[in-house]
């Protein structure tokens, strides 16, 4: 249901200007028409609530949304992938799992999501009040004989009809699972169709070892899956080889980037339309070395936040992701971290015209946060000590 009305809150953090005390959000048919300082005695009072822009979760795999706990990762990425493949085989109904994940995203105040899709993504089960879904069709194929099928799958997917709730993109999965030639084909296809492209890169030591030497645990995993081809990846390959082609795209997203090296960081600083998607709790789950997100921000590279899927994260709440990061990074301005969860992620997905800030003309989807009674009302305190109090979704308020 799309709603209208005026809503008053203790504080509105619009995301594109200073916070507004006793703020009022005016909404018509689910779209913000005005944001102003009250009091407004005729507005619907939301009480002691701080309104933040709706969360934009830049990376999910909703097919794993019925996982109750993340799959163990202490043996590294290659071993974890084996468990993921096994979990997928046991899955009863992928569509139900994705729908379950969408419901969780709605409850978590998610305005939009960058979702990686394998086969049969249930677009027909989306409703008007779901998050805007930028669905990246995942393509896998390291062996040369998979190239034709991979391209056909991508082409068929992009021939589908996008809607405002279901937008299309491509995801060549990762350097260890996509032949370099197929990777280039898919980048060209994304450029031709001008759609976003997301690829996992510099995620794990296993990946970097495979690129450099052609060996290690990732090769063993790929051989076990029947996916390995000896000549596919030239020895001495590095993440930079997969970054360079992205320069021609309008909306490239690099997922994780946990182990980006000096040369990649410099390249990214010169190509500031490439967004890194950092998934803090998944990063922590794997025990990776510190992520270079703060340095990336300092050099002008956009960094967005994602939860990743429930195979590596306990839930799909981007607010929990943001709070996890804020509590561990007291030195970073809170507004930088809020932007990673809102406007930067919306921009990466090409949705900055509709989402990402609480501004006139944009969708009236907002996460309401409450603070402990003795807390100062600063953005730093909100991120560290706040807890969800409800969600304003397209002009309707749903208390938590
Ligand atoms: Zn992923």
Task: Report a brief summary of the structure.
With 400 residues, this protein is α/β, with parallel strands linked by helices. A six-stranded mixed beta sheet has the order 3-2-7-16-17-18, with no helix packed on it. A four-stranded mixed beta sheet has the order 5-4-1-6, with no helix packed on it. The longest helix has 14 residues.
Write the layout of secondary structure elements.
Layout: E1 5-8, E2 11-12, E3 20-21, E4 23-28, E5 31-37, E6 44-45, E7 50-53, E8 55-60, H1 77-90, H2 94-107, E9 110-117, E10 132-139, H3 147-158, E11 166-172, H4 180-193, E12 197-201, H5 205-213, H6 217-224, H7 239-243, E13 252-256, H8 262-269, E14 275-278, H9 280-285, H10 293-298, E15 303-305, H11 318-328, H12 334-341, H13 343-348, E16 366-370, H14 379-385, E17 387-393, E18 396-399
Parallel strand pairs: 1-6, 2-7, 8-9, 9-10, 10-11, 12-13, 13-14, 14-15
Antiparallel strand pairs: 1-4, 2-3, 4-5, 7-16, 16-17, 17-18
Helix pairs in contact: 1-6, 3-4, 11-12, 11-14
Bound molecules: zinc ion.
Question: What oligomeric state do these chains adopt?
Answer: single chain
The top-level CATH class of the largest domain is: Alpha Beta
Spatial order of strands in the largest sheet: 3-2-7-16-17-18
Please state the average pLDDT score.
Answer: 96
Write down the overall geometry: globular
From the helix content, strand content and strand pairing, which structural class follows?
A: alpha/beta
Classify the beta-strand content into a percent band: 15-25%
What ranges have pLDDT less than 50 throughout 5 or more consecutive residues? none
Radius of gyration: 21 Å
* Ligands and ions found: zinc ion
Number of domains: 2
| Largest pleated sheet | 6 strands, mixed
| CATH topology name of the largest domain | TIM Barrel
- Helix share, percent: 25-40%
Query: Termini distance?
Result: 18 Å
What is the tally of helical segments? Answer: 14
Question: At the fourth CATH level, what is the homologous superfamily of the largest domain?
Answer: Metal-dependent hydrolases
């Amino acid at each position: 249901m799309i709603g209208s009305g005026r809503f008053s809150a203790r504080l509105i953090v619009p995301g594109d200007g200073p916070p507004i005390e006793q703020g009022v959000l005016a909404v018509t048919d689910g779209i913000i028409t005005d944001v102003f300082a009250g009091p407004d005695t005729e507005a619907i009072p939301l009480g002691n609530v701080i309104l933040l822009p709706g969360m934009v979760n830049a990376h999910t795999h909703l097919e794993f949304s019925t996982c109750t706990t993340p799959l163990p990762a202490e043996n590294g990425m290659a071993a974890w992938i084996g468990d993921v493949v096994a979990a997928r085989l046991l899955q009863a109904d992928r569509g139900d799992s994705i729908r379950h994940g969408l419901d969780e995203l709605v409850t978590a105040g998610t305005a939009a999501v960058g979702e990686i899709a394998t086969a049969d993504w249930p677009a027909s089960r989306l409703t008007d009040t779901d998050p805007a879904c930028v669905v990246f069709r995942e393509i896998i194929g390291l062996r040369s004989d998979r190239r034709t099928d991979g391209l056909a799958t991508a082409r068929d997917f992009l021939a589908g009809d996008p809607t405002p709730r279901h937008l299309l993109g491509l995801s060549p999965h990762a350097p260890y699972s996509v032949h370099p030639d197929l990777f280039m084909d898919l980048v060209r296809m994304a450029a031709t169709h001008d759609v976003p492209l997301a690829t996992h890169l510099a995620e794990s030591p296993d990946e970097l070892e495979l690129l450099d030497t052609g060996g290690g645990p990732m090769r063993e995993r790929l051989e076990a899956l029947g996916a390995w081809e000896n000549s596919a990846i030239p020895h001495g390959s590095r993440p930079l080889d997969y970054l360079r082609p992205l320069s021609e795209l309008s909306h490239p997203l690099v997922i994780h980037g946990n182990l980006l090296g000096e040369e990649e960081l410099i390249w990214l600083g010169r190509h500031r339309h490439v967004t890194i998607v950092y998934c803090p709790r998944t990063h922590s789950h794997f025990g990776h070395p510190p992520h270079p997100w703060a340095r990336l921000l300092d050099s002008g590279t956009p960094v967005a936040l994602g939860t990743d899927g429930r195979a590596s994260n306990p839930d799909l709440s981007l607010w929990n992701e943001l709070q996890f990061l804020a509590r561990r990074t007291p030195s970073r301005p809170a507004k930088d971290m809020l932007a990673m969860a809102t406007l930067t992620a919306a921009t990466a997905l090409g949705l900055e015209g509709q989402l990402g800030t609480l501004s006139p003309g944009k969708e009236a989807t907002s996460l309401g946060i409450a603070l402990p009674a003795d807390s100062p009302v600063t953005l730093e305190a909100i991120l560290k000590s706040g807890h969800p109090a409800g969600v304003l979704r397209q002009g309707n308020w749903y208390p938590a």
